[in-house]
Write a structure and sequence with these properties.
heterodimer; A: four-stranded antiparallel beta sheet; 43% helix; 18% strand; B: 164 residues; mainly alpha; Rna Polymerase Sigma Factor, Chain: A; Arc Repressor Mutant, subunit A; 2 domains; 7 helices
């Protein structure tokens, strides 16, 4: 029996997310190197999609559309519109019968509005410039995050010659920003409904949860900027195996640990 | 759709919200939760339209799968196990048009109705209740191997239905 026949039924289960345990791990390892099975998996997922497409049901409530578009508009909005309020009573041409005094007052007022308009436009240009820079920074950050987490990314582990790759992790922690990037390689796969949990071991106090992760088919995983209490001084980082929802205190034993350098 | 094109979101919502909502509601059985899934699916698409590969076919089918996956994650109270970029599927023929989708859906419902009940049941327990093959075996009292065979056979039957 070819490996494809061996995996045929497992592929179908995997396509509908019903395969678990060692069989899932074995199949994922096979998929990592078998383009034919990857294509079949796509087909099977498409077959499963037909089940979804055939579902009958009521239309969503009308408010759902507005809720979505409001959320989209809110995310898209970056600079609040600047609006000059038109002075009261300014809509008619008064200078024809108010006289020169009123005309002079209007000219002064218009000049002050012009100045205010100029200053507001200048502020807007500055804000636009800052926004452009922030956007560029954000794109760079997204690019970095994408590179770290892209499933098409190639992973290379360099080890001393004649040494098999060992599980390893690297944590980069910036205390004053509570910023953490964690990269793991060659992590063993886990039983279903289990997860690895990263812990920040502070100089003082109990271990702090720093993110959950599961390795991909390559044994790689990342944790990027998990929520952390501000300003913690880290003595070390450690990893435990927990149930899928994670834990608030580490379940012994620690499976990996590293102190700062 | 380019990221940020708000009018495109509205158009896609009008075209595909029914199927996304129907799938979520079928799985979760709760209108509020289904609406949350609906919101999340379209927001994710708007934020990252490159997650869908148009060369591989139907956006409607892809959205239906994303909706199913998110609803199952919600059902199981788990963190999303896949990002939308990880979901790649091929659906043939192309189901871009409303009429095509409607015809295909009718055909699939007919095929499901004609499917052996045990086969249909195994497929639906996996797809709409998010049960693993061992959980299905335990629930139905059937051997693991039988469940595997039924699920694969069920998917093959659906595939052939659209090819005829």
């Amino acid at each position: 029996m070819s490996s494809h026949e061996q995996f045929a039924e497992d592929l179908a289960l995997y396509a509908v997310d019903a395969l678990e345990g060692q069989e899932r791990s074995n199949l994922e390892q096979h998929l990592a190197t078998c383009a034919a099975c990857q294509r079949e998996l796509e087909q099977l997922r498409g077959d499963g999609a037909l089940l979804a497409l055939s579902t009958l049901g009521p239309k969503p409530p009308v408010r759902a559309r507005k809720r979505l578009l409001d959320a989209v508009a809110s995310e898209a909005s970056t600079v609040s519109p600047v609006r000059l309020r038109e002075p009261e009573g300014h809509r008619r041409s008064w200078w024809g019968w108010l006289g020169w005094a009123a005309t002079a007052a209007l000219i002064v007022f218009a000049a002050s509005l012009g100045k205010e308009n100029y200053e507001l436009k200048s502020d807007l240009r500055m804000a636009s410039s800052i926004l452009s820079q922030r956007t560029a920074d954000l794109e760079q950050a997204r690019s970095l995050a994408n590179a770290l987490t892209n499933p098409e990314g190639q992973h290379f582990t360099l080890v001393a010659l004649k040494t098999p790759p060992q599980p390893q992790g690297k944590a980069i922690y910036v205390r004053n920003r509570s910023s953490l990037i964690f990269l793991a390689n060659n992590m063993p796969s886990l039983p279903s409904r289990k997860t690895y949990e990263l812990w920040l071991m502070p100089v003082n106090g109990a271990p702090v949860p720093a993110g959950l992760f599961k390795p991909d088919a390559h044994g790689s995983a990342t944790v990027i900027n998990p929520p952390l209490p501000p300003g913690l001084e880290a003595r070390a980082f450690a990893i435990t195996v927990e149930n899928e929802a994670g834990a608030t205190t580490p379940t012994m034993p620690l499976v990996m640990m590293g102190e700062g350098g | 759709m380019k990221s940020g094109d708000q009018s495109a979101v509205a158009e896609l919502y009008d075209r595909y919200s029914s199927v996304v909502y129907a799938v979520a509601l079928r799985i979760l059985g709760d209108a509020g939760a289904a609406e949350d899934v609906l919101q999340e699916v379209f927001l994710q698409l708007w934020r990252n339209p490159s997650g869908f590969d148009a060369a591989r076919g139907s956006l409607g089918a892809w959205l239906a799968v994303i909706s199913r996956n998110r609803a199952i994650d919600f059902l199981r109270r788990r963190r999303p196990e896949t990002d939308i970029e990880d979901v790649v599927l091929s659906v043939a023929p192309d189901l871009a048009g409303d009429a095509d989708r409607s015809r295909a859906a009718e055909k699939i419902r007919g095929v499901l109705g004609a499917m052996p009940l045990v086969q249909r049941s195994a497929l639906e327990l996996a797809y709409f209740e998010g049960l693993s093959h061992s959980e299905i075996a335990s629930k139905t009292g059937e051997p693991l191997g039988t469940i595997k065979t039924r699920i694969r056979a069920g998917l093959m039957t659906l595939r052939k239905a659209l090819q005829t």
